[in-house]
Design a protein that fits this description.
alpha/beta, 21-stranded mixed β-sheet, four-stranded antiparallel β-sheet, 27 strands, 34% helix, flat
Length: 700
Amino acid sequence: MSLNLSSSSQQQLLHCFFTAAFFFFFFFFVIVLAIQSCRCLPSSITVGDDDFYPGGSFHANPMDSGVLFSVGSCMDVYCPPRKRSRITAPYIFREDKLEVDNRPSIDVLPDECLFEILRRLPGGQERGACARVSKRWLMLLSSIRRTEICPRKSSQSLNESSKLDKELTAPVSDDVEMISAEDRELGSDGYLTRCLEGKKATDISLAAIAVGTSSRGGLGKLSIRESSSSRGVTNLGISKIAHGCPSLRVLSLWNVSAVGDEGLLEIAQGCHMLEKLDLCQCPSISDKGLIAIAENCPNLTALTVESCAKIGNESLQAIGRLCPKLQSISIKDCPLVGDQGVAGLLSSSTSILSKIKLQSLYITDFSLAVIGHYGKAITSLILGGLQNVSEKGFWVMGNAKGLQALMSLTITSCRGITDVSLEAMGKGCPNLKQMCLRKCCFVSDNGLIAFAKAAGSLESLQLEECNRVTQLGVIGSLSNCGSKLKSLSLVKCMGIKDIVVGAPVLSPCYSLRSLSIRNCPGFGSASMAMVGKLCPQLHHVDLSGLDGITDTGLLPLLESCEAGLAKVNLSGCSNLTDEVVLAMARLHGETLELLNLDGCRKITDASLVAIADNCLLLNDLDLSKCAITDSGIAALSCGEKLNLQILSVSGCSKVSNKSMPSLCKLGKTLLGLNLQHCNKISSSSVELLMESLWRCDILF
């Protein structure tokens, strides 16, 4: 009689048959090992109170022979019934003692045998379950490369088997933290991402990640930060990632002192798809490891090296020669990197580097000359702390005419930036749109005005701690910048003094939309009045920290703005009064969206009445440390068309529990409310308010 079985049933029978056969031979092998170990026992051994005797029976009555347990032809073992459980595992000899190995029999197997068994596991679910058995099994599983995993023995096609593997998921393990909830995420680029910090960054965690992510398509992005030097990540953990995550594309190592060239070599040999590499404070990694990356990872597009004392010119030359897709390079505080390394990155004919960041390096004018000649693809350039670069280097970089595509330039703490070199940069970069100068102590008004004239495409200019620039330089730049400047920012420029100077009639800057002057203590009402007249189309104004300006200085700016202000930050302007807010509400109430009056101690309830009546689009209002009272909050809540979403009255000592009904009324639209340091508001009132405004995030 024949059985008509479907193909799926036949496959299941075959699978069961092979599984049963495998376990039969496996346990047979374990039993043979146990018997062989017992055969090696000496002819007479004394253990405690029990004696072992050579072959033959010492009982006169054959019926008593039941107390003998025959192990083999060479000996018998006397085992009283009450002690039968003593022989439960193979024996181990150490010198002249006999010890019993109490481990489960499978743990007696050497790593080679376990490796062969584990690499034949059918899918990700089985591998994940086995990884939770012990650290030994976990480390063995994580050492198995994907190419070493045996395919399933079935009639299914390899495509179907691969699809099934991807659907299976490895369970979570509390012991080894296979996949912790806080680490399970997809990056913005779609990669499976893991981030380990501090005590969580260990070799065991990396091994668990390597096993746990293998059935999910593989790990795409790994970040390790501040690993402990005692039990943190080492080359062994990195090798597990290299073996189990061949699809790794992004690797970041920050402050990982125990990882060296050996670990990076493993990554280079196992992760050929690597695209981004970030090395920060890795003192054990040298040129050898980075050269291996260059030789084995041709898809590398971004490289960041910071505070790596052993990385120098040789590895950067290899990167420039062997990584034709490299687009971004960032090097900071690497003492062995010099002109040869920078030249090696840029001088290649196939170089497509578009973003370069060089900070705190011992490079000279030669490197900047190379950038000026060969940087045809550079769109963003950041240079900082280059103390060995002189005025000549920046001048040559500008006059080389190679930076035609440069759009963003940031220079910080470089003595070589002077009026002459700054003008050359403006002329040599015709498409420059964003310029940022920080701590450039040799730039004065003349250089700033000359640069503004030369850089015809400039849209954003930021000056920070440039103390030789005065209000004349600022006004001259606004008048000569052309028709494209949209944003001007001045931060901590101590050279600006509020002096009334007779200046010629200057043409306004109609293109400027954003003006930010922050923490410039010398910038007062006179300077503010002059700048305000030159900016009739402003939308955003940030004057935070200017305690020297008064109503007289700010009113001309408010009156000259024709387009309507949308965002105004006056935090720290302690000398402003209600007159400014009343004028702002009257002139710009229809466009104002954000108003920050934090620290304006002369602002009272009158300002809130004007805001409630005129500012229909206002959604963010900060009244921290203002002189407002409960009456002002009540007036604000009466604004019928007011649509506030964020309100802060932090530090308003005159606001009390009487404002709770008004705040509750405002809460219909509020998403955020700050009541911190309001001493007259009780915690019980805030609790009732929280119950009423359940959608609003309240700080108290």
